Amino acid sequence: MTRILAIASQKGGVGKTTTAVHLGAYLALAGQRTLLIDLDPQGNATSGLSVEPPVADPLGELWTGSADWSSLARPAPEVDRLQVLTSPSRARESFESFTLRSSRVTELRAQLLAGDWDFVVIDSPPTLGPLTSLALAWADGVIIPVQCEYFAMEGLTQMLETIGRANAGRAIPLEVTGILLTLFSESFELSVEVVEEVRKYFPDKALQTIIPRDIALAEAASHGTAASGYAPRSRGAWAYLNLAKEILAHDHA
Amino acid sequence: MTRILAIASQKGGVGKTTTAVHLGAYLALAGQRTLLIDLDPQGNATSGLSVEPPVADPLGELWTGSADWSSLARPAPEVDRLQVLTSPSRARESFESFTLRSSRVTELRAQLLAGDWDFVVIDSPPTLGPLTSLALAWADGVIIPVQCEYFAMEGLTQMLETIGRANAGRAIPLEVTGILLTLFSESFELSVEVVEEVRKYFPDKALQTIIPRDIALAEAASHGTAASGYAPRSRGAWAYLNLAKEILAHDHA
Ligand SMILES: Nc1ncnc2c1ncn2[C@@H]1O[C@H](COP(=O)(O)OP(=O)(O)OP(=O)(O)O)[C@@H](O)[C@H]1O
Ligand SMILES: Nc1ncnc2c1ncn2[C@@H]1O[C@H](COP(=O)(O)OP(=O)(O)OP(=O)(O)O)[C@@H](O)[C@H]1O
Ligand SMILES: [Mg+2]
Ligand SMILES: [Mg+2]
Asked: How far apart are CA A201 and CA B19, in angstroms?
């Protein structure tokens, strides 16, 4: 059964893309055929893995049906079993031609579920706009990265409310797979406090794995590759490997 | 002559809000009557200064004319001469009721220019959508924060293209006041490389001041206050003081 996970948070720079890239890479390295869908017109996941876009606007082609998932997906050059649907064109930011009530959303989701991938991971932009809504509409579960700093807590509450409201209109509710604490710095009290606070208020949802701040993760991105290849023994790489294990152990989205 | 500066970048978490808050605070501390307009529905600038919203949706009230700038602006509790227009309601994210071609945009800008403030600083969300476009439409100059990490460079080029395109339709072009390098870590090669690269390709636009990564800035936000009060001798506070001096020394937007 294909599992579809969205990585979403309207707060900027909290590690959505880094999480999408590395969770995708480590799931693939664990033997899961994985599709990473880059739904952010900024295309950081696409460039962070050096994937060649097959066309200027894959999402547009999917929508009109002039191409399908498997014909548009491209391999991530350095990660076997990881494929990427590259980012939408900038024009999609306005997204007015799409309506999320369209049956096309459901059809495309059905095709994903029926397809060859074991896991689908969706990277989304730092908004609660249409592209993020699309990611949530396609997904069964959502991982919400929360940076271990102040503003992140406020954003988390808003995100959970948004998901709650969306679930009011869904036949099958979107599961909060977990809250992922990111950019953790053990030497900073503020960072430690955010971890304690999230674990206190969301004990069932805070994921066990915490992603430390580790320059190797930023460097890997600047080399257009995942840390699993670039710096596999770094703390950041190990943390994401453990995240993939934790997600695999879930028996649900 | 009132100077209106937008702080804008579609990349998330690059220090837009931290820059808006601290540039606003240090301009005010330098004697400039300053208005900080929080155009991000996430309201990080509003909460980062502990400002009480006068109404749920100040932008909406301004738009319909049921209130004006001075009646809606609220003082930042700990910074004399700094006032804040608190964040729009979340409903404004869709912004369909506003059209940026509306004469209301120009009228509101004219009121700002005619008003009592010496400086207006506008914080915007991590998008190139309508609220950011509104910030750019009201502004004379834009400061683009660029995080000293890989993805930031790509985002910078897109941002400059966006401004260029917007300027094609403007009587008075929007000035790029400067590119502000933020979250700099001197011990990381990647960080140093981004600084060199930005200064090499944009020698006239890269601002002299570089903002270092300094936990005091994040801690100040968690206390709902600017570092100018919370940790005035921290490196982060000094850097923003110097930024305010650099901006004041410009004889243009
Ligand atoms: N654990 C980490 N340690 C060090 N750097 C990191 C870590 N996670 C992410 N980064 C870096 O921080 C920056 C922001 O991360 P990233 O782009 O993944 O966040 P994002 O939430 O996707 O941002 P956006 O909201 O713009 O989409 C990037 O330069 C990235 O390489
Ligand atoms: N120089 C700095 N040193 C340390 N922490 C910083 C610095 N600048 C910003 N931060 C922290 O990093 C996080 C992101 O910064 P900030 O919210 O200012 O970015 P932003 O661009 O406004 O984000 P968004 O795209 O979500 O609006 C915040 O928790 C902030 O307190
Ligand atoms: Mg991203
Ligand atoms: Mg912000």
From this structure: 30
Asked if residue A35 has its Cβ within 6 Å of ligand 1, the reply is no
Q: Give the number of other CB atoms < 10 A from CB of residue B166.
A: 17
State the pLDDT at residue B97.
46
pLDDT digits over A95-128, tens only? 554 566 678 898 999 999 999 999 999 999 998 8
* Best CA proximity match to A46, nearest among A72, A12, A26: A72
- In a 10 Å sphere around its CB, with 0-12 CB exposed, 13-18 middle and 19+ buried, how is residue A154 labelled? middle
Q: Report the distance separating Cα B46 and Cα B84, nearest Å.
A: 7
DSSP A78: T
Please work out, in degrees rounded to the nearest 5, the angle formed at the alpha carbon of residue B147 by the alpha carbons of B251 and B212.
80
B14 neighbors B210 (Cβ within 8 angstroms): no
d(CA A29, CA A32): 7
| Ligand showing the shortest atom-to-Cα distance for residue A15 | 1
Candidate of B9, B17, B225 to mutate for ligand 2, largest count of ligand atoms within 8 Å of Cβ: B17
Query: Which residues of B fall below an 8 Å CB-CB distance to A?
Result: 10-14, 17, 42-44, 47-48, 90, 93-94, 125-129, 147, 149-151, 154-155, 158, 185, 188, 190, 193, 215, 218-219, 221-222
Record: contact A218-B190, CB cut-off 8 A: yes
Q: Which amino acid is at B240?
A: Y
Q: How many CB atoms lie within 10 A of CB A248?
A: 16
Alpha-carbon distances, residue A88 vs A61, A63, B253 (angstroms): 10, 11, 34
CB A233 within 8 A of CB A209: no
CA distances (Å), origin A42, targets A2, A193, A194: 27, 32, 28
Which residues lie below 8 Å from residue A64, measured CB to CB, with a gap of 6+? none
- Per-residue pLDDT of B152-197, as tens digits, reads 878 898 889 888 887 887 888 899 999 999 999 999 999 999 999 9
Distance CA B25, CA B27 (A): 6
Tokens coding A36: 């990473």
CA A164 centroid distance within chain: 19
